[in-house]
Design a protein that fits this description.
The chain has about 190 residues and is α+β, with helices and mostly antiparallel strands. The chain has 5 helices and 6 strands, in the order ααβββββαααβ. Helix 3 packs across helix 4. It is globular, with a radius of gyration of 18 Å. A 6-stranded antiparallel sheet has the order 4-3-2-1-5-6.
Length: about 190
């Protein structure tokens, strides 16, 4: 009897998880449709229109690793800075490194960004070089970082350095996901 109850319980949890994932995917797709998306090749072709400090959000994919999207930022040399995976941690690469990705990219820019803020941002990015990748349920914990938490923290800390409150988490949850950043009212979607 215990075994049957346990199986029913596991089945309910699994069904709830599937429903939750389906709901989140539908919600994310509806919010994503209001933004301009580009292929990686279009991003590379329009590199002259990108600015240091731009945030790049990758579309979601139906895989465990890609189901939340991905977030990265361009440094002062227009290189992609990101925390892509556990085994990698901090990563810096030229923009053409994304040329073969099978995902779409949306570009966002902090409204009214100035050189003072950008200098503070690049300093904060440099402070993360030695940090490892890690998932945490507290977006303000900065001893290990995941992709969107990295973006959230460096923008927040740079804002504090220049006397601005920069909170890119649009839903205020304990974690910050790429699409939470994308939906921030502090950002504008860049259209080429």
């Amino acid at each position: 009897m215990k075994n049957k109850t346990f199986k029913n319980y596991n089945k309910r949890i699994f069904l709830f998880f599937l429903f939750l994932m389906f709901s989140l995917t539908l919600h994310a797709q509806s919010s994503a449709s209001k933004y301009k998306w580009y292929s990686p090749k279009q991003i590379i072709q329009n590199m002259d229109k990108l600015q240091p400090g731009d945030i790049l959000i990758l579309s979601k994919r139906p895989t465990l690793r890609s189901m939340w999207g991905h977030a990265a930022v361009l440094n002062e040399h227009k290189k992609i800075v990101e925390f892509p995976a556990y085994s990698i941690g901090y990563s810096e690469s030229p923009i053409y490194a994304w040329q073969n990705l099978k995902r779409q990219v949306a570009v966002f820019r902090l409204k009214n960004i100035d050189d003072n803020f950008k200098n503070a941002l690049f300093h904060e990015i440099d402070e993360t070089i030695t940090k490892p990748y890690g998932i945490t349920f507290n977006k303000n914990f900065d001893k290990r970082l995941y992709c969107s938490q990295f973006i959230y923290i460096v923008f927040k800390k740079a804002g504090l350095k220049v006397g601005k409150i920069i909170n890119l988490d649009s839903n205020g949850g304990g974690m910050v996901m790429p699409y939470d950043i994308m939906n921030s009212k502090l950002l504008e979607n860049i259209v080429f």
